[in-house]
Amino acid sequence: MSFGSDTQKTEQPTGKRLGDARSKGNVAFSPDLNSAASLLFGFILLYALGVNLYNSLYKTMKVSFVNLTYKDFTTDSITNIMVSHVYVLMKILSPFFGGLLLIGLAMSYLQVGFMFNFGLLKPNLSKLNIISGIKNLFSAKSFAKLIFSVLKLIIVGCVSFLYVRKEFRSKEIIDLMDTSLSSIFAISMKLMYGLALRVSTALIILAVLDYFYQKWQYKRNLRMTKEEVKEERKQMDGDPLIKSKIRSIQRQMAMKRMMSSIPKADVVVTNPSHFAVALKYDGAEMKAPTVVAKGADLIAKRIKEIAKKHKVPLVEDKLLAQTLYKTVEVGREIPQKLYYAVAKVLSYVYQLKKENKRL
Fold this sequence. Notes:
By secondary structure, the chain is mainly α. The protein has helices at 15-23, 31-67, 75-112, 130-137, 140-168, 171-174, 181-221, 226-237, 240-260, 298-309, 318-327, 339-358; strands at residues 267-270, 275-280, 290-296, 314-316. Among the domains are: 28-114, no CATH class; 261-358, secretion proteins EscU (name from scop, 3-Layer(aba) Sandwich). Helices cover 67% and strands 6% of the residues. It has a four-stranded mixed sheet, sandwiched between helices. Strand 1 (267-270) and strand 2 (275-280) form a beta hairpin.
């Protein structure tokens, strides 16, 4: 026997629960994924744009040192030189930093989609609570984060060690002392780029795993009890008692409308006691006779009483009354297969009305 099973959060969060959490800025997000992706693609961009960046910076620095030979420095000349250098540096570095910005935005969008919430800018004084801060520091979530950080450090260290050990055993490194300074610089840059690429790749793999963990933890924290699911379903679908009351009122209103249309009917076809169906036909507005009211047993009795009160003819036809009751809804025209049977009834009624007028 499971005690308090209704209070245990065993149910997956509903769409409304997830939507409410998202509106408050509570989403599954891994900052490590953004950092690792920016680091990896940053090195790729640096490798792709490295030569152009180096040449542009070289020309800029050369112009700067040439300007130092000027003897007539003034405030305006220094300002112009600084402004021109800032503009040139921005122009040189904008592709690199612009690429990093786009990568960061793309990774954020892939994780949480488009979300802009001004409510997150409001100060939250509860975060300044020292007691809750200490509890969070020693919580299971903090412990899991610590374990993951240590694991990340170990994996990055192993990747770095294995790469460095492999490269330092290569013939290219062994013969490094006999090469020129430019060759040493080129080989060093190659080693640094290779190491950075492998480390950032390892970091992004770990960050992807962290994202899936954050998503699992996020849904786990938003789990609901069975009672919460029932209550939410009531709020969305409406209370069953209220819905039942509304349906009852709607039926009463429909019944009143139906009963009010009986005096305008041309004929009421009866079974004679079980069914009653009121028909009306207006050749100018209708393609075929229309059922304006129908009922069985007590409702049929009430239909006949209203018809008698307003002198609407009653015609007994058991088969036709039963067929009309079962196949035609109120407000609908009769089907083509019943045209002949209904036409006979209406013809009889019209003939009866003519005779009454003569009398």
